[in-house]
């Protein structure tokens, strides 16, 4: 591995470490806020969040399959990369559907119909969505790039970095979902 590859991977891992600390802070603040008088016990986790969990897990599996075929079969690799991207977009749609379900329960992000629970859930999920969008941007970039320059063993670093970040946002949502189910 050359110096540039090592440097880019190190920068990605520092960024991931920073995101871990950000979400650790948000979830810690969520736990501390349980002592507030406006805390709603047994806050309903939207059904759409359950479906989004499955969508993002399947998207990681499809990305693993894409990586498996990356060098051997460009068409299969790109097919599974497209499936990953579509599932990522579906994940975001499900998140906004979850927001709508929270609003239908009578809770909003801010204002008199908000609760500390709903405010944190909106914030945590929305910040996660932003990172999913960033990961999707890079996956789409990799897909487009592969149409012009076939990815091979010598130039697969972009795919590898995008994959690491995608799997991170997947694992992050699994953590956040479990956290919200047990502490929400």
The main sheet comes to: none
Number of helices: 5
Uncertain parts: none
Which whole number gives the mean pLDDT?
A: 92
CATH superfamily: Cytochrome c oxidase, subunit III, four-helix bundle
What would you say about this model in short?
The protein is mainly α and 184 residues long. The protein is built from five helices and no strands. It has one domain (3-183): Four Helix Bundle (Hemerythrin (Met), subunit A).
Please give a structural write-up.
The chain is mainly alpha-helical. It has one domain (3-183): Cytochrome c oxidase, subunit III, four-helix bundle (Four Helix Bundle (Hemerythrin (Met), subunit A), Up-down Bundle). The protein is built from five helices and no strands. It has helices spanning 3-32, 47-68, 74-104, 116-148, 157-183. Helix 2 (47-68) runs antiparallel to helix 5 (157-183), helix 3 packs antiparallel against helix 4 (116-148) and helix 4 (116-148) runs antiparallel to helix 5.
Give me the secondary-structure topology:
Elements: H1 3-32, H2 47-68, H3 74-104, H4 116-148, H5 157-183
Keywords, please?
elongated; 5 helices; 0% strand; Four Helix Bundle (Hemerythrin (Met), subunit A); 78% helix; 184 residues; mainly alpha
